[in-house]
Specification:
This protein is an all-alpha fold. It contains 10 helices and no strands.
Length: 233
């Protein structure tokens, strides 16, 4: 597996000016074209293009790899599973099990990135249980595990976008109700964009098999950001 790209240096101040302007338009209009312009500015000007953006999101790919291995090794009973004794969790609530998985994958370290990733993992597992109500977090199938990884990736991208520029969207929406609607629309758009990237990779034979998760997620992120970067002004 090729080495993962490391986070890039902090970009110049005011780099999100164009993004905020477009998001302000989107907050008022709800027009997806304004959202796309905002995403285009976010990648092109905020991070200097799809490659630096992929570097910035390197931790997302690394965490996805750790999440994939934790879920796989727990289900298969591997001796080196990050969760020390999954049997102890048997019969516990799904919330307790999800918390144990998150702790094993991404312990608290006081950084904003860690908090965003922990929240994204929690939301991804919640989405899994909505889609597959009978899923056992300690014994996920390949399909269920891939679902969690893809959801985690999409949610983490959306969360970081919100952390960077979401406040401007909320401030420019005409009402609180509209603001929440715009946020939901933005999250759904990013989620579908990431899902489309994973579909394209699957069509090329690149799947989220154990040992390849981080590199496939990194490729999906690059694909997504290339699409965003290509949006016209």
């Amino acid at each position: 597996m090729p080495p993962l790209l490391q986070p890039s240096p902090i970009a110049p101040e005011k780099r999100f000016g164009g993004t905020r302007a477009s998001l302000g338009d989107f907050a008022r209009s709800g027009d997806a074209r304004d959202l796309r312009r905002g995403l285009g500015h976010y990648i092109r000007n905020g991070y200097g293009g799809s490659n630096p953006a992929t570097q910035r999101f390197g931790a997302t790919a690394q965490t996805a790899g750790s999440l994939g291995y934790t879920l796989y090794s727990t289900a298969s009973g591997a001796a080196d599973a990050p969760i020390d004794d999954a049997a102890v969790l048997a019969g516990r609530s799904t919330e307790e099990i999800a918390t144990a998985i998150i702790e094993a994958v991404r312990p608290v370290d006081g950084t904003q990135d860690a908090e965003a990733e922990r929240a994204a993992m929690h939301d991804a597992m919640s989405e899994l249980l909505k889609e597959f109500p009978e899923a056992d977090l300690l014994n996920l199938s390949d399909v269920e595990r891939e679902f969690v990884i893809e959801k985690f990736t999409a949610i983490d991208v959306a969360r970081r976008f919100e952390l960077d520029v979401g406040k401007h969207l909320l401030e420019r929406a005409p009402t609180a109700t509209v603001a929440m609607s715009r946020l939901k629309q933005m999250r759904a758009y990013i989620a579908e964009s990431v899902a489309a990237a994973f579909r394209r990779l699957r069509d090329q034979g690149r799947t989220l098999t154990t040992g390849r998760v981080a590199s496939v997620v990194q490729a999906a992120l690059r694909d997504t950001f290339e699409v965003f970067e290509g949006y016209e002004e």
